[in-house]
Amino acid sequence: MQYCPKCKMMIRGHKECCPLCQGQLNSVVDDEIKNSFMENGIDADDTDTAFPVLKRKKVSSLTFIKMCTFLVAVIEIIFITLSIYSRRQYSWMGIVCVGALVFWLDILVTMYIRNNVLKVVTLEALVLIVVDFVIDYKTGFYGWSVMWMIPISLLVLGLFTVLYSKMTRRRLEEYIIYLFFDAGMSLLQIIPMANNMNPYPIPALITIILFLIVVAAAIIFRFKDLKSASARLFNV
After folding, report:
1. Rounded distance, CA 236 to CA 231, Å?
2. What is the mean pLDDT of the chain?
C-alpha cells in the first residue's frame, strides 16, 4: 500500500501518482502512519484495490444528534419531576426546561444548515433574542432584554453579516435578504415600546433607524440586486 503525503491518505494498489492530486506517492509507510490507519480499521498492507481509503469519523452526525437528544431528555425528565414535586415553587425550573428544548431544536436546525454560515449565525442570534426575552419575562421582567440585549444582538448580527460577506467576497444579492430579515426583526422592537415595556428605548430606536437606512439605500441604489435575490429566494 502506498501513501500520499499531500492528501494524507493510504492508496491501495500500485499507482504511479495519487489519483486525487496527481502527486508523488511514498511506497514506504512509517510505523506512525501505519498505526494511525490500523486504529481506524484500515490494513496498511492491503492491496486489493487502488481506490483511496478515507478516515472514518469517530462520531457520526446521527450519533451526535442522538446524544444531544438523550441529554435534553434527561434534563427535561429531571426538572419536570422536580417542578411537580415542589409544586412549581421555583420558576427557574421552567426556564431550564424551555432552554433545553430550545437548545435541542437549535442543534437540529444548525446541523441541517451547517454549510451556510450566515443562516447558522442568523438562527443563533434569533434564538439568543428569544431566550433573553423569555428569561427576562419569567424573572419579573426588568426590561434589560428589550433595552440592551436585543438591540445589541441585532446590531452585531447586521455588522457580522456585512463583514463576513465582504471577507468571503460574496455579492450583495447573496446576503441582502439577510439584512432585510435583520431589519424586519429590528422593527419588532416597536411592539414592546408601544406597550410601555421598554423604559429606555433609545438603543432600540437607534437600531431601527440604522436598519431602515440600510434598507432604503438597498432599495434606491441596489434594486437590481434585491430583485435578483428575491427571485432566487422564491424561485421566480
Report:
1. 5
2. 81
